[in-house]
Amino acid sequence: MFAITFPFGALANPGALIVVGLAGNESDAQSLTAMAADTRQALVARGIPDASIHTLEGARKPDIIAAFERASTEVTEDFWLVFFGHSSTGREAMPQFQVPGPRLTAEEISQHLTSIQARKWVFIGTSRSGEFLPFLEQPGVTALAATSGTGEIQQPRFPAHWTECFLQNPKAAFEEIATCADELVTSAYTSSSLARSEHPRLLNGNTGEILRAPFSESIASINTAEGPDSGKTPAITAADIEIPRTTTQNPFEFAPATPETTALIAEASAIPNPDQHAALLLRSDHDLTINNDHSSVERRALRVFLHSPASFDQWANYSFSRNPPVNITTILGARIMLPDGSSYILNTSQPEASSAPIAAPSSILFPKVEPGSVVEISWETARRSEMTLPAFYQEIILHQSIPVILSHLTIRTPKALNFQCTLQNSPLEAETSETAHSQVHSWQFENLAAHEPLPLEPPPREHLTWVGVSSFDSWDVFTDWFRRISEGAFESGPEVKQHAELIANAHPDRDERIRAAFELVASLRYVAIHIGIGAFRPRTPETVLAQRYGDCKDKANLLIALLREMDIAAHFVLINRGDYTDADFPGWQFNHAIAYLPDDNGGLWLDSTETTTPYGYVAPGNVGRHALVITEDAATFQRVEAGIGTTILDDWQLAAQPDGTWHGEFSRKLTGMAQISFAHHFTGLSPRQRNFAIAEFLQSLSPSADYEITPAEHNGSPGIHASATSPAAISPSHGLDFASAFSPASRTVPLELNDAQPFRYDQRIRFADPSGNPAPDSFHATPAGMRFSIEFSRPDANTLERHAILEITQPRISPEEYPQIREAFRQWSHQLQTSHAQHSSSHE
Q1: CA 276-282-288 angle, 5° bins
Q2: What average pLDDT does the chain have?
Q3: Which helix (DSSP H) or strand (DSSP E) does residue 558 occupy?
Q4: What is the mean predicted confidence (pLDDT) over 414-439?
Q5: Would you call 811 helix, strand, or coil by DSSP?
Q6: Mean per-residue pLDDT for 824-843?
Q7: pLDDT for 222-253, tens place per residue?
Q8: What is the rounded CA–CA span in Å between residue 420 and residue 559?
Q9: How far apart are CA 400 and CA 290, in angstroms?
Q10: At residue 12, does pLDDT exceed 70?
Q11: Alpha carbon of 39 to those of 33, 42, 226: distances in Å?
């Protein structure tokens, strides 16, 4: 990056003092600490012994003065003084550096620098830092200020870029590092289309000359000498994610193998992978810092071992969404280590890795990817607070689609606010500590299993390890907030009153009134509304009825208003449809809104958003969930119970014909979830498409038959009517769509059948049989309270009837109960397919 490098001679006794002052918040403090660490690393690379570099964070003035006095006796050549933090102007326009207690003034800094008999290099990385330079004018001092002397009071970008340039080329001349930083700052402001608000200054203490950027003029007194080689590169263990930086102008710079990369490849290759996953996540570092204003900074670092090409799409390609000013993602570093230990290191100054707040996603496509490679990547996302939600809530799931060997998670929450953290589905306890601004919670997880969901599993958050952080004190506080933002939203209006009156006049019965109101609201269009406060606050019932559309909370609100106008108690409900809600941890854990009507039978849950769910049924995804029922004076969690039970009734009338063929009539009647699934499956299909889908289903029942289909309604329940003709005996199967759930021999998490609702399948087959042959044996199994049965009977001398029942009373099946229930289902299915066929063959 630099056009010139200077030769270095030997340093006698060099030294350095890095001072980190007061920070405004935890994110600010972390940034200052990181810059101090990078500066220290650069100074070591420059040739200053690590033991001669002193870093003071949060120190008071006496400690800093003591460090100056120590340097005056120990340092004889080349003393570096670096300040990171904030500055202000005190009495008599005296610049001062902000530390706890009395501030450190520019005059005091100058006084103590005078006592150090060495060349002195000073960098002041604060706002208005140019005000310090006139006080530092003395022989042997070269000083750099991040900003000019007046007006520039915003926290500058220059210090971060200065440390970046210093670290990239630690043996460069002082003014070259300053020039590099100035170029990066200019580029950042230009790419952001912002007017530049900071202008660094460079002081030559010998002449008193203060230079403006770009510092193209040389300073006569700068004659940097090279110090002794600092020895071996500091050891980097295979557990650390330390991504080197590059100054190449290409997107990626090639680097030959090193002991570090060779060790990382060897360590990764030695980790067992018995299940042959496509990749292993060797290490994940996750750091979340939340500030007082609920803005946050999230830092991630990953190291992934790529076992096979199947992992490349997910783990060798990365995309980051940038949505300024709401969130800005900065790529901090990335590299790929090939199996031979050589590397390709990302140049983070290239456009695709730029921190400029562009709207388009930024992507990294690692080059030269091959099995046996290790990918390392780190990035940072800064997010503004969600102004419509006056609280902070976030969940972090620790599992990935591949095994995680080691995972570190740290969450920092403001000490000034009452935040809560929860760890779910893990016995680990957090390590807690404090900083000047934050409460710190840290966890280390080892050998987290891959998340490999199978069909019909419960929501992942019920069994995966996850951490939640929330600024809500309690559900009462949450409810109070929801009531405040919804004030006035639940009030009725003249059109709502008129519709309620029309319904009441047409339906004197309470249940019929509820049904009519539900069907009216369900018929309105669903339109998602997520703009600003509209993501949380329902629109008024009058507005929804007038516009005849709304989202879930709008439609629930209108339904409740109609019912209340008819003196029917109804309450607004927030629910996490299809997902898990932790009723003991307050926060925004909801994605849906419905209505609840209390009664003596456990209440009625009405979801007017799901158009395929008939009145009286609980919509899919709601059963078993914890629902927050909000009344006028309280809010309580209730578990949603199923409404009308789920049944499938199959009826077959079969008869053998004189020519040896078979003819039959089939009908299927449905209630509950089966009825809802049936309606949902056929929604939007044309008649021809509908008949094709039904024919496909019937073929699964008995593949040898031809069917003539007549879709029909049976007593208000949808179903199927068909006539069947077959050249051989018809032996129908059950055709249940959850049969595949019993495919694996075992499960590690529960199996959740039929949307967690009890289920009954009832199949009756009657066919003419005057043979008098004895009926086949019955089959009965009752594992874990379930019922699997097949019974034969003779209603009369010429008829044989088979009655098969599958009854699931507890639809959530634990991994321990699963094998015996699976075996009973397989035996029942086998008997169902063979018993009737065997008897029919003997009859023929």
Answers
A1: 135
A2: 86
A3: helix 552-565
A4: 92
A5: coil
A6: 73
A7: 443 333 333 333 333 445 788 887 766 788 99
A8: 35
A9: 24
A10: no
A11: 10, 5, 17
Cα–Cα distance, 596 to 556 (Å, whole number): 9
3-state secondary structure of 235: coil
Q: How far apart are the first and last CA of the chain?
A: 91
With H, G, I as helix, E, B as strand and everything else as coil, classify residue 43: helix
Q: Is residue 137 within 8 Å of 145, Cβ to Cβ? A: no
Percent of the chain, pLDDT > 70?
A: 89
**If you ran DSSP here, which 8-state letter would residue 282 be given?**
E
The residue assigned the tokens 């388009």 is: 360
Tell me the DSSP string of 72-138. HHH--S-EEEEEES-EEE-GGG-EEE--SSS-EEHHHHHHHHHT--S-EEEEEESTTGGGGGGGG-S
42: number of Cβ within 10 Å: 24
Q: CA-CA distance, 284 to 287, in Å (whole number)?
A: 10
At residue 427, φ and ψ (nearest 5 deg) are -85, -5
Structure tokens at 306: 């790529």
* C-alpha to C-alpha distances, 236 to 228, 233, 279, nearest whole angstrom: 22, 9, 23
Helices 106-114, 61-74: crossing angle, 10 deg rounding: 20
> CA-to-CA distance for 88 and 94, rounded, in angstroms?
8
- pLDDT tens-digit series, residues 755-778: 888 999 999 999 887 777 777 889
Give pLDDT tens digits for 311-356. Answer: 999 999 998 876 766 788 889 899 999 999 999 999 886 554 544 4
If phi over 0 gives left and psi between -120 and 50 gives alpha, with beta otherwise, what is residue 309?
alpha
Helix or strand run (H / E) with residue 727: none
What is the enclosing helix (H) or strand (E) of 65? Answer: helix 61-74
User: What is the three-state SS of 649-687?
Assistant: EEEEEEEECCCCCEEEEEEEEEEHHHHHHHHHHHCCCCH
Tokens of 462: 């019920």
Residue with tokens 């088979």: 802
Q: What is the largest CA-CA distance in the chain?
A: 122
How remote is the C-alpha of 716 from its chain's centroid?
43
Residue among 287, 248, 288, 241 nearest 267 (CA): 241
What are the backbone dihedrals phi and psi of residue 724, each rounded to the nearest 5 degrees, phi first? Answer: -125, 140
What does the alpha-carbon distance between residue 526 and residue 610 come to, in Å, rounded to a whole number?
Answer: 9
**pTM given for the model:** 0.75
CA distance 127 to 136: 17
Can you say whether the dihedral through the CA atoms of 556, 561, 566, 572 is positive or negative? Answer: positive
SS3 590: coil
Cα separation, 769 vs 655, in Å, equals 8
Other Cβ atoms less than 10 A from the Cβ of 595: the count is 26
Handedness of CA 59, 61, 62, 65 (dihedral sign): positive
